[in-house]
Amino acid sequence: MKIDNNLKHAINNVIQNIRDAAVKSGRKPEDVLLLGVTKTVDVETMQKIYDLGVTHFGENRVQEYLKKSDIIRRECHWHIIGRLQTNKVRYLDQRITLIHSLDRIELAEAIQKRGQKINHIFPVLVQVNVSGEDTKAGIYPDDVMNFLTNVSKMGNIKVKGLMTMAPYTEDPEEVRYIFKKIKKLAVDIEREKVENISMEELSMGMSGDYKIAIEEGSTIVRVGSALFGERVY
Ligand SMILES: *Cc1c(COP(=O)(O)O)cnc(C)c1O
Prior knowledge:
Layout (H helix, E strand, L loop, with lengths): L1 H23 L8 E5 L5 H9 L4 E4 L2 H10 L5 E4 L15 E7 L2 H14 L3 E7 L12 H11 L5 E8 L11 H17 L4 E7 L6 H6 L4 E4 L1 H4 L5
Parallel strand pairs: 1-2, 1-8, 2-3, 3-4, 4-5, 5-6, 6-7
The chain binds pyridoxal-5'-phosphate.
C-alpha cells in the first residue's frame, strides 16, 4: 500500500510541476502531455499509473512493447522513444501512437516499407541532436530541413514534430538553450510549409529538465525516474 501511495504522490507532484511550468510561461497545462517512460517498469505498476491518469507509455525496446502490450489490460497509448533498430521495424503496428526517434534515412525507409505493408501511416518525430555530442543520436539542426524534405515524400510516414534529448546536467538551466533552439527550428520549419510535415509536437524534457523544457515550448515530456524512482536494469 505504501508503494501505491508513493506512486500517487510522485504522479501528482509531476502533474503539479507541469501545470506550474505551463502557467508560468503563459501556456495551457493541457497542451503538455505527460508521457510515462515505462522501460523496465512492470505491467502491474503500469496498470496502476494508468488508473491514476497516466495513459501514455514510452518504451525504448520494441520487444518490451510487444510483450507488455499483449498482456496489459488497459486502452493505453504506446510511444517508441529510444534508438530504433532497423531490423525491429517489422514488429511495429497500428497500436503505436508516435515514434519519437526517427534519426536516419535508412530508418525512415524501413518505417515507410512497414507502413505500406500493413497499410498504415506512422506518426513520427524527427530526433534532433542539438548538443552535438557523438553519443546522442539525432540529426544535426543544419541537416533537419534537408532530411524532412526527403521524408516528406514517404506517404506512410507523417512527421508531427521534433524530439530532442539534452545531456544530463546537475543544473537544468544549462540545457535551456537546447530547448530554445528546437523551438526556433520548429518555427522556422513550419514557415517553410513543407507538404506532409507538421511541427505541432515537440518532445523534450525528461525527469531532470521537464520544467525548463515546458517553459521553452515542449508539448510532450518523457518522464521516467521522477515517477518510478531510479531504474534497476
Ligand atoms: C529513459 C528515457 C527517458 C526518461 O528518463 P528519466 O530521466 O528517467 O525521466 C526519456 N527519454 C528517453 C529517450 C529515454 O530513453
